[in-house]
Amino acid sequence: MNNSVGNAVRLLWAGLRALLVLTVVTGVLYPLAVTGIAQVAFNDKANGSEVTSEGKVVGSELIGQTYNLPMKNPGDAEEAVVPDLKWFQPRPSNGLGSNSVNTQYSIILSGATNRSGDNDDLIKWVTDAKAAVVKDNSTAIYKVKPSDVPADAVTSSGSGLDPHISPEYAELQVHRVAEQNKLDVKAVERLVADHTDDRILGFIGEPRVNVLQLNIALKALVAKG
Predict the structure, then answer these.
(1) 8 pLDDT band (50/70/90 cuts)?
(2) Are residues 73 and 151 in the same domain?
């Protein structure tokens, strides 16, 4: 009996020591080591690829965000979200923004609509979105045709949080942005060209424009007058 109790005590003590050692190693030392290496070697990525403007963090280059007019009645679920047309606009969030559960590029929930290409609701959303893109981006001297609207202007990415748009969608917005900000169209076109990233390694993915980076540059251009 005494031997049994003694063995049990020894086993419990051995288990407790193993727990303490593993807790310190895997729960304290390892996370500290990984965090330290990440901060030294990959500081930008480790901190979420933060983007700063005028000394303030304004977002992440990895996560899309909206550029809307301030709401007149914040918290009113019935109030329509209106895009601020002086800024380049991102692709829809999680399908079509206000038509889905992820209305504001919320990182709490991400994902696509999970609707098939022949779904009636999806067809209507895309049709309405295309009409809005045509209307919003047509100016007195520049008229957008439905055939000019690229797919990313009316559909979301798989995550619904894509920070990029295609160069075609950025170029489609140039005349409207120039008019809204009283800028020369050529200057805005150069801005888009300067912020267009090529395929990764020359063959992976597609050319893309980071909307946040583009809008930061646009703000600087407007400030110059």
Answers:
(1) confident
(2) yes
> Could you tell me the residue range of the domain that residue 22 belongs to?
2-46
3-state secondary structure of 164: strand
Residues 214 and 188 occupy one common structural domain: yes
The alpha carbon of residue 15 and the mean position of all alpha carbons in its chain are separated, in whole angstroms, by: 46
Give burial (CB, 10 Å; 0-12/13-18/19+) of 219: middle
Q: How far apart are CA 143 and CA 134, in angstroms?
A: 8
Q: Which residue has the tokens 């047509």?
A: 138
Do 54 and 6 belong to one domain? no
Residues 157, 110 within the same domain: yes
Q: Where are the beta strands (DSSP E) in the chain?
A: 50-53, 56-60, 164-165, 196-197, 208-210
Give residue-wise pLDDT tens across range 43-99. 877 787 888 888 888 888 888 888 988 878 877 767 788 899 999 999 987 543 343
Do 38 and 65 lie in a common domain? no
d(CA 60, CA 99): 24
